Amino acid sequence: MNATITAIGGFVPTSILSNETISETVNTTVEWIEKRTGIKERRLATSENQATSDLACAAIENLLENYTVDPKEIDGLLLATTTPDHLLTPTASKVCEISGLTNAFGLDLNAACSGFLYALEMGASMIESGRYEKIIVVGADKMSSIVDYEDRNTCILFGDGAGAVLLEKTDLEYGMMKSILRTDGSGTSALLVPGGGSKLPATVETIVNRDHYIKQEGAFVFKKAVESMSSVSQDVLASNNLSVEDVDWVVPHQANLRIINAVSESLNIATEKVKVNIDRYGNTTSATIPLCLWDFAADFTVGQNILITTFGAGFSWGATCIKWGVMREHKSVKSLKKDKKSEFAITH
Length: 348
Fold this sequence. Notes:
- This protein is of the alpha/beta class.
- It has a single domain, classed as 3-Layer(aba) Sandwich (Peroxisomal Thiolase, Chain A, domain 1), CATH 3.40.47.10.
- Helices cover about 35% and strands about 25% of the residues.
- The radius of gyration is 20 Å and the shape is globular.
- The chain starts with a strand and ends with a helix.
- The C terminus is likely disordered.
- One of its GO terms (cellular component) is cytoplasm.
- It is an enzyme of class 2 (transferase).
């Protein structure tokens, strides 16, 4: 029994934060941002009280609107996020309620930028066990809630968004292949939000010190990301008996275009095979992989091999391969078929 993706949804807020706007508030230029990151703009959740749960629900709503899926048949929701609505209670609980997943368990999972891949592997394992049949996996983050817009090294990178996929069981040879997941806790201090947790609870001092915003050692994280994503991608291809030539598409974590290019170059994979949308969304952390799948779903065909690789705080990283399977029929296709039948009945 395999687990395969059968439906995809996504959501990004309508508010756009451009490089021009950032360059007016911090000491940087449009050219510097694009050259260093490949980002031209990012989306921000600026609506009043719009939280990570709202982004996740919008992505699930998009999935349910476009595919015929009964929310009551969903067995579980795995929500990967770095920016939960609250430290307590789980954001997944709220998402289950709003999205009508009345028969599903809900679980938050935090592995930073690697969160969606970790959740995808967890969901696939649950389905392969035979205990569950339908699991929705979501990556959602409101990064604007923890970004210091006075810090040019981090404020240029991040955006808000969410993506969702439906995993289902199949006895066909499509779906999730072997994954490799890795963690190195020695890199924790290089990328973190220091304040707000049990280690450094919120105080007047932590607020004054801006400890509730992302802190990053950019050069060190960059080097580690390239090394880790390249190495684990080679390892996961070997574990699935695949060569670079067997890879049809690469869906990498969208952290920095220079990282993406360096990884694809190290793997000797043509840039035409690498899916990139960081220029429009920035780094949406847990949402980058599912948003790429959502953005480019029309390019994927049955039987193609897709390599996913990611790296994030923790340090956490990993890679997996997917043999793209049969998607549920898109509602727009059904409507088109109905229109054609009606046209046939009228003209014939």
